[in-house]
Specification:
Helix content is 78%, strand content 0%. The protein is mainly α and 64 residues long. Helix 1 crosses helix 2 and helix 1 runs antiparallel to helix 3. The radius of gyration is 13 Å and the shape is elongated.
C-alpha cells in the first residue's frame, strides 16, 4: 500500500478537480484550489509538494 500513496493522493486530487470543473462549472484554477482545500491542504502547490514527498519516499523505500 505504501507504494501507492503518492499516486493515490494525486489521482484523488485530479478526480475532485474534474468534478468541480466539469460538473460544478468552476474554472480549472479555482477547481484545483478548491479540491486541494477540500483535501486538507492550503492550496494546489502544497498538495503537489506532499505528493512529490510521498513519491520520493516510495522510491527510497524500494531501494531498501
Amino acid at each position: 500500500m505504501l507504494e501507492l500513496k503518492g499516486l493515490k493522493l494525486d489521482g484523488l486530487f485530479e478526480e475532485r478537480t474534474a468534478i468541480l470543473e466539469y460538473d460544478a462549472g468552476f474554472s480549472r484554477y479555482d477547481a484545483e484550489q478548491m479540491a486541494a482545500q477540500a483535501m486538507g491542504f492550503a492550496n494546489k502547490a502544497e498538495l503537489k509538494m506532499k505528493v512529490q514527498e510521498l513519491k520520493a519516499g516510495e522510491y527510497n523505500d524500494a531501494d531498501l
